Amino acid sequence: MAWNEPGGNSNNQDPWGGRRGGDRKGPPDLDEAFRKLQESLNGLFGGKKRGADGDGRGSGGFGLVGIVLVILAALWLWSAIYVVDEQEQAVVLRFGKYYETVGPGLNIYFPPIDRKFQENVTRERAYSKQGQMLTMDENIVEVPLTVQYKISNLQDFVLNVDQPEVSLQHATESALRHVVGSTEMDQVLTEGRVAMASEIKERLQRFLDTYRTGITVTQVNVQSAQAPREVQEAFDDVIRAREDEQREKNQAEAYANGVVPEARGQAQRILEDANGYRDEVVSRAKGEADRFTKLLAEYRKAPEVTRQRLYLDTMQQMYSNTSKVLVTGESGQNNLLYLPLDKMIDNRGGSVSGSGSSGQSATGSDMGTRIVDDLQQRNLRSRESR
Questions:
Q1: Domain span at residue 340?
Q2: Amino acid 305: pLDDT
Q3: Stretches in the chain below the pLDDT threshold 70
């Protein structure tokens, strides 16, 4: 019943505290207003609302609870939907057990019963390591190392090892120490780094496969190793001394490679010249012997003709190789061809001294005299025959 209807309000007051007939005394009571607001809030959040009977509930509480539930559901749905990129994969665990591996695209999972691990499986990652190692010849060197790797099996990477990248670091140190410990210092510091890197990569990958970490090593780079800082100067002196030694060896080998082949060539040339001279002398001797044998047979058949032929051949050989002097008479007749054999022999034997030279000159002079006499006699006979 309304407050202004007859019998509706025994106190004849309106809701604002005034009496009927418009005789309100002042503004509404603030305490009463705060009390009503508190009852309204209690009703919205499920509290009991004070009323005429003291048991009623406000109907506005159910609407706010519904709004809160909708907001929570939206937040849950927002966190449950996720996107996997082209370079990524995701592993979903349901109640702590492997459920599935999700590829690229829009996906959903159900937390908190599901857990999601999302990683980039195509990006190459790098890990660097540097430490002092003991070589096979008991020398200490500092070896810097860089390992490049990527995730090849996300399920193994997530489930099999608690901290797979820490396991990678430990395995790298183990493989590095094993390889450096079986290599001499010279190989570690110079040209042996490539072979070391290959061996470290193979051994490291074998460790990771044994642990089933899901990691694949793509490249191992062993950088320039050096001695510890405390002994670096002494170590540099040793290296310089070895370099000087190697340089001297190379120079000696170069000199030997230049001298030895030349000496061998000269020795071979001398041997060939000696062999050629031997063959020439032997062949000439055999030829002279054969010619003399054949000439003897012909001489026995015709001594005079053979003797004449030998004489003419000898004269032809001498005239063709020496200078000649033609002696003519006063009337232009009785020409005489004179061959100065004594002068020729003296000129040829001028370098020979002693009695041998004198003997040769005398012999040549006698031979020249005999030849001149023989020619004169022939001319006389030819004139008499005319």
A1: 321-350+357-385
A2: 84
A3: 1-31, 33-63, 66, 319, 321-376, 378-386
Alpha carbon distance 48, 33 (integer Å): 18
* 201 exposure class (CB count in 10 Å sphere: 0-12, 13-18, 19+): buried
Please calculate the CA angle 94-214-212 and round it to the nearest 5 degrees. Answer: 90
pLDDT digits (tens, 9 = 90+) for 45-101: 555 544 444 444 444 455 677 677 778 877 877 878 888 888 888 999 988 888 888
Task: Say how many domains are in the chain.
Answer: 2
Read off the CATH number of the domain in which 190 is found: 3.30.479.30
Helical spans, DSSP H, in 45-163: 61-80, 154-159
Give the position of tokens 């510890």.
Answer: 228
Contact (CB, 8 A) for 103 and 125: no
Contact 140, 132 (CB under 8 A): yes
Containing 215, the helix (H) or strand (E) segment is: strand 215-222
368 lies in some domain: yes
In a domain, 380, yes or no: yes
